[in-house]
Automatic annotation (TrEMBL):
Belongs to the heat shock protein 70 family. This is Sulfate permease. CDD domains: ASKHA_NBD_HSP70 (cd10170). The keyword Oxidoreductase does not apply. Keywords: ATP-binding, Nucleotide-binding. GO terms for molecular function: ATP binding; ATP-dependent protein folding chaperone. It comes from the Bacteria. InterPro entries: ATPase_NBD, Heat_shock_70_CS, Hsp_70_fam.
Amino acid sequence: MEPSVQTQDQTTAKYSVGIDLGTTHCVMSFIDTQNEDAQVEVVAIPQLTAPGTVESYKQLGSFLYQPHEHEMGHGSRTLPWTSEPKALVGAVARNLGSKTPIRLVASAKSWLCHGGVNRRDSFLPQGSPEEVSKVSPLRATELYLEHLKDAWNHMHPDNALEQQDVTITVPASFDPAARDLTAEAARNVGLAHLTLLEEPQAALYSWIDNSNDKWRDEVNVGDVVLVVDVGGGTTDLSLVAVTEEDGNLNLERVAVGEHILLGGDNMDLALAYRLKMKLAQDGKELQPWQVQAMTHACRDAKEALLNDAELQAVPIVVPSRGSKLLGATLKTELTQQEVQQTLVDGFFPQVGVQEHPVQRARGALTQMGLPYAQDAAITRHIAAFLSRQSNATENAFAGIPGMEAAPEFVKPTALLFNGGVLKSKLLSDRLFNTINSWLESANAEKAKMLSGLDLDLAVASGAATTAAFVAVKAFAFAVVLRLATISVSRALCPLFQVWLLQWKHYAWLLLVWKKAAVCRYRAKNLVWSSVNLFTSNSLVRQLAAKTKQVST
């Protein structure tokens, strides 16, 4: 299925909704397309946090818990819209799964793009006993979307999500099969008016929208923006060239990296194995399920330590089994030093731009699981990407005097970071300084940081913004065509004359957008739509409102 921009009647689609289906979190945002002063809002999603307890958060954990038959009694699963939800997802799944990991489905998004398995088969949680109910990666994705849909419909009973324009983001490196499955999951829960948008693109649009039209002061013709998105499960890399067309600045996506399964999940696992070795030195051996449980505990401890440099250590409790549960429980701690050594030096080492990841043949056992990146150094993956794409900007900057045609590596002039991992100042500073050390050694100017993003919410917000601009322009064009049928006397009014002269312009805008949407789906290295399509939000809404008044 090819993604398309589907325009609805304006009286039906009141909102444009953006959904970020992340590996570890889902976020939903929206904008009211009928209110010219509306801003993007992030939905606080009601979810169970413990049996019988409902709270609302801006993130829905991408976790699914498969409880045993008698684990949660009647009434303990009640949500605001139902007393019998189809699945336990979100915070409660993460909390219960940290204690019983064999019943927890995690990283469904990573499995959805794994071509080595049948993604419609029910095998998650992988490696769990037969008595644990299994789901497919596709079904897990549907259940996350269903929870988001039910939450939205509960809060907007007169504007069901099925009737809104919905944009779901996917990694730029997602292959066509993974994109098809994402679209299929959305259709299966009733979301027919759907557009797929690449995550780095959504983050860039969010940055543009947040800049209040000042983005043109931060980038110039000839700039190359490196977008680095390090999320829970993947590292997504894109290059964007700033070009000029008819006196207007354009942002052209010129390269996208390979699909790299490397992110926060890998960091949690690395920390868990470090603690496993520390316990082994004390003569305490852990079972595989205990390492899984400790991995989830390390996630929370990691976030606490990275967000508070003054915090020296976080206690870690390793669950056990048996009648003497409390006596058998193991305790250890994760220290600030261990986090910095493992994550900063292990995942963001200071390497040269010529140092690239080393690929080795995978063993049969490794192939049974997710194909995680064999080299954990994100900086080496970025160095390899910039070196491979040394000719990526040649076409974009053709004819611009002074632009180097074929450097040994692409030298970005600006950096845009996204993803929960890079919320840590410690990690983002290390990455920023490492990339600039490459530029300095090549006698190039240092890259500047493009700031202003909420790294957890930017992708969903950018998706909602993009969809809103498209919807408003589509409505404006539809009204223009309607005006063309009005009587000659009314058609001679000044406002109609202006719109009649410009109707071809709006037709061109829609044609470009639709073609670009199809191209983005079919290939990786194609031109992004002109940013001019998305930077005149207020103006377009005002024109649409005035035209609507005339048409009535």
